[in-house]
Amino acid sequence: MCLRQEDFAAVVRTTPLISLDFIVENGQGEILLGQRLNRPAQGY
């Protein structure tokens, strides 16, 4: 089952946005960093 584009847009507009944060560390102790590109935390 697939949502039509307009139905998906309505869901995005009317429901809470959920985001997950996680840390990726390699064997040398280096940590992968990412930058948020989308709302609501764009630029962080």
Q: Can you give a write-up of this model?
A:
This protein is an alpha+beta fold. It has a domain at about 20-44. It is built from one helix and two strands. The protein has a two-stranded antiparallel sheet. It is elongated and about 45 Å long.
- Tell me the number of helical segments per DSSP (H or I, 4 or more residues long): 1
Order of helices and strands: HEE
The helix-and-strand class reads alpha+beta
Biggest pleated sheet:
2 strands, antiparallel
Shape: elongated
Percent helix among the residues?
10-25%
Distance, first to last CA: 34 Å
- Counting DSSP E segments of at least 2 residues, the number of strands comes to 2
Q: Outline the low-pLDDT stretches.
A: none
Strand content: 5-15%
List keywords for this structure.
alpha+beta, two-stranded antiparallel sheet, 2 strands, 9% strand, elongated, hydrolase, GDP-mannose mannosyl hydrolase, hydrolase activity
List the helices and strands and how they pair.
Blueprint: H1 5-14, E1 24-25, E2 31-32
Antiparallel strand pairs: 1-2
